[in-house]
Design a protein that fits this description.
This protein has a domain at 30-180 and 187-252: Spore Coat Polysaccharide Biosynthesis Protein SpsA, Chain A, CATH 3.90.550. The protein contains 12 helices and 12 strands. It has helices spanning 2-28, 56-64, 86-94, 112-121, 141-152, 168-189, 205-209, 221-233, 255-267, 275-300, 305-330, 339-359; strands spanning 43-49, 73-79, 100-104, 127-132, 136-137, 156-158, 161-163, 201-204, 237-239, 247-249, 361-364, 367-370. The chain is an alpha/beta fold. 52% of the residues lie in helices and 14% in strands. A 7-stranded mixed beta sheet has the order 3-2-1-4-8-6-9, with helices on both faces. The chain has a 3-stranded mixed beta sheet with strand order 5-10-7. A two-stranded antiparallel sheet has the order 11-12. It is globular, with a radius of gyration of 21 Å.
């Protein structure tokens, strides 16, 4: 028992060091203030779509109301065999003589990665920005991303993404997502990038065309691209800390869809070969496994609850070190009142999604995905 306790506290110590390093990295990144003048650079916005009839109109309105000069913007949407009226909605915009290029995946191809590859192959610019069909952004989004690129010349620029939330369930997702965005940004800040988000990502086209996105996994195009660049020039990976660069997206409404989404995210973990990613993922998994196990064990041995509570406090202080500054940046400090309830639930759902992700089977966009062997 003493050995188990010793190992547990060591693991939590390592976890605290990692999260506090991310917090340091987040604070190290300077807020980006766009200058009054910068060079207009041609850019292509790529969006992969499947069954987005309810969301695509909001995205297109946001893209078409950008204050970046329209002659420098190319918009390409790739339809991934939608079964609703997504294509018809897009065509209604094209009928208004708006410069939107629509592509459709051939019958023998499917999935977001294939859609992105098709779209990027048709892009007429060297600078690519990707987002998702259910996203919205303010009118200075493209301008802020390009201005940062013009100033720093980064190969990849990861942008902030937040959830719009109304219900308690959605707010819990938004709070958890803040920790992911903060950790990803913080890791970039200490020059050990581990994640990015394709809903808000700028990169040089040549980096994508030379990367290996690992077609074995249905998702992970953004992270596999980041890890490819990291092997070559990790200093070329930046995070833009700017309110103008924030992209908003929707959380899952139903628990079943939420679990499927997290399983999809976890399913690509077997494709990671980066030590920073692997060590971080293992430590987080062990921490949550220990927390869940100690809580369950304390039901049968009440004296063990003190151990659980001690570990819980250690994790709480570490997590708040990253969540507080990130929530201030996004203006979502009110989400923190859900922090304690989330801390109780989080270990169990992490274990569930991690194990399910290893099995490699999930449902996404009305398709059943299973790891290719």
């Amino acid at each position: 028992m003493n050995i188990i306790l010793y190992v547990s506290f060591v693991v939590f110590g390592v976890y605290s060091f990692i999260i506090l390093s991310f917090a340091y990295g987040w604070n190290k990144i300077r807020f980006f203030k766009q200058g009054k003048e910068f060079k207009n650079i041609p850019v292509t916005v790529i969006v992969a779509c499947r069954n987005e009839e309810k969301n695509i109109t909001r995205l297109l309105k946001c893209l078409l109301h950008q204050n970046y000069p329209k002659q420098y913007v190319e918009i390409i949407l790739i339809d991934d065999h939608s079964e609703d009226n997504t294509v018809q909605v897009i065509k209604s915009f094209q009928d208004k003589n708006i410069p939107i290029k629509t592509l459709s995946l051939p019958n023998h191809l499917q999935g977001k990665k294939a859609a992105l590859e098709l779209g990027i192959s048709h892009a007429g610019t060297e600078i690519i920005i990707t987002t998702d069909a259910d996203c919205t952004m303010n009118k200075r989004w493209i301008e802020s991303m390009v201005a940062y690129y013009h100033k720093h010349g980064a190969g990849i620029i990861s942008g902030p993404v937040i959830f719009k939330s109304n219900t308690i369930f959605e707010k819990l997702q938004a709070l958890e997502f803040l920790s992911l965005i903060g950790s990803g940004a913080g890791a970039i800040g200490i020059n050990h990038p581990i994640m990015s988000n394709g809903a808000n990502l700028l990169f040089q086209k040549k980096l994508f065309t030379t990367s290996i996105l690992n077609e074995k996994f249905a998702s992970g195009d953004d992270i596999f691209l980041l890890l490819h660049v990291k092997k070559q020039h990790k200093e070329d990976i930046h995070f833009i800390k700017s309110s103008d660069a924030v992209v908003c997206t929707n959380p899952e409404v139903h628990l079943k869809d939420f679990i499927n989404q997290r399983i999809r995210w976890a399913s690509k973990s077997k494709g990671y070969k980066d030590y920073d990613v692997i060590i971080t993922a293992l430590i987080i998994s062990f921490v949550n496994l220990i927390l869940a196990g100690s809580l369950i064990y304390s039901v049968f041995n009440y004296s063990f609850f003190f151990i659980y509570f001690s570990l819980f406090i250690i994790k709480t202080f570490a997590d708040l070190a990253i969540l507080i500054p990130v929530s201030r940046f996004t203006g979502q400090q009110k989400l923190l009142w859900l922090f304690i309830p989330l801390q109780f639930v989080y270990p169990f759902y992490i274990i569930l999604t991690a194990v399910s992700g290893l099995l490699g089977k999930f449902r996404w966009k009305s398709r059943i995905y299973k790891e290719k062997r």
